[in-house]
Amino acid sequence: MPGRTSRHRTFRRSLPFAAAALAASLLAGSAQADDPAPADATLTADLDALLADARLANAQTGIEVLDATTGQVVYARQPQALLTPASTLKTVTSAAALDLLGADYRFTTEVRTSGKRYGGTVVGDLVLRGGGDPTLLATDLDDLAARVAASGITSVTGRVLADGTRYDATPLGPGWAWDDEAYSYSPQISGLTVANDPEYLMDTVRVTIAPGAAGEAAKVTLNPAEAPMTFSGKVTTGAAGSATTADAERRRGNNELLLSGSIAAGSAPVTAWATVEDPSVYAGKVFAGALARHGVSVQRGVQAAGGAEDSQPLASHQSQTLAQLIVPMLKISNNGMAEHLTKEIGKVKGGRGDWATGVAQVQGFLKANGLGTPAGRQVDGSGLSRYDLITPAKMAGLLELAQSKPWFGAWYNALPVAGNPDRMVGGTLAARMRGTKAENNVHAKSGSMGGVDNLVGYATAPDGRRLVFAVLINDYAGTSPRPVLDAIAVRLATGPAATATATAGTAQQRAKSLTAPAAGAPEDAYTGTRWEDCEAVSHC
Hints:
Residues 501-525 are annotated as: Disordered. GO terms for molecular function: carboxypeptidase activity. The protein has helices at 6-14, 17-27, 41-51, 89-101, 138-150, 279-293, 322-331, 335-350, 355-368, 392-402, 408-414, 423-426, 482-494, 496-502, 507-514, and strands at 60-67, 73-77, 108-118, 121-129, 155-156, 160-163, 204-210, 219-223, 230-233, 236-238, 247-250, 256-260, 262-264, 270-275, 297-298, 302-304, 312-318, 443-449, 452-460, 466-474. The longest helix is centred in the middle third of the chain and has 16 residues, at 335-350. It contains 15 helices and 20 strands. It is of the alpha/beta class. The radius of gyration is 26 Å and the shape is globular.
């Protein structure tokens, strides 16, 4: 980056904030022509006023704002505090993946034969070998099955062996909450997994509950139909106009769905998502179902592969490029995709597809680029774990660094765009900051879980200057501080002159204006009731 090398960046971030302020004061009066411009007093006053909000009274808040071109710190408060990143950690994981694996990297899933072939019969097994693809869809498995049938195979005397051994056998990340396991944002991670929707909710089944006649049991269907789920309980059909309370909850540790509640007669079906135990075998069952539809019989069902089977290639499927895959990962905050990238980095660069190896490679990427200190703590790739800790300064440093990388354009465009209603543009920020200067301006990654709400990204001021910001709010209780997060981003996008013109008066008055919902914003825009789809279950 112009004006700041990696060595300089490391030094600045390792220097205590108070010492940096003292050094700056000692140097005042001896400024040279190329010294940084003085701090924006209006910006400082406005951000100070925003951070004085009562919703932050007992929370831990860290913030750093940089001039994206020079790296100059234009505002900071507790920039070296170690805080929980939640899903903002996906910026670290995706940047490391692009740098270490390459923007053109693809995942490959294979169908292989084990045994001998006699005409249309395979005497032996078919092996579905997972290559770690986090976006493998049921339709992709159907296409592979069609290609098996097109090769002339009509019968397999053995099994479909589902091979997820590219990654280790640990399906859930360190520190993940046990009561999250049934939900779509907490999928089990395997070298072979399947999704059945365009947002790549891997290792999940869609449960649809439709009403019958009043007093009768509701109809429950699964997609994919091959999902190995059993049912207990039931959903009843209530009178027309009655409340709908239908639910389908997966019991922990098995594939039993507990049905409960009721659905009103004549109402639209309701849909729930649940994770599935043993994702590789689940993918194998979906593949076996596709084979049957294409006229290929498998006599001995589906089993997990050991990974050492002698086999020959028959057909393969390649994913999109990594530059394309990070779009849904960042836009809609897909946790499973982030974890696959972490284990894939470990497999390709460290020889082991596990979290420890992948995280070590990610940390090596940060260290090699001058962002090794303070060490903080990272245990997964998505930020789902509360063990993860990072500083606002390191997060801002990553955003500054990324601009110098050849993959920056793809990465910047993959970040959610404030106020843009297109799901794959606005992503988790689609309903936020509408009707403000931040709309279609701020590119940023959100991250939240209970008591945590964060936002890191870029804002472009009216004069064209790009600012990097990282705001991490931890340990709040009660009313959501999200209006403050959004107001900070809006203030950075608005600029001092526009702010003063639009809202004359004190910094406190300007702060009050910035934290009010914008005209035309959704009615629940600042209530905390349903910010983002993934936050309906409080992890994003």
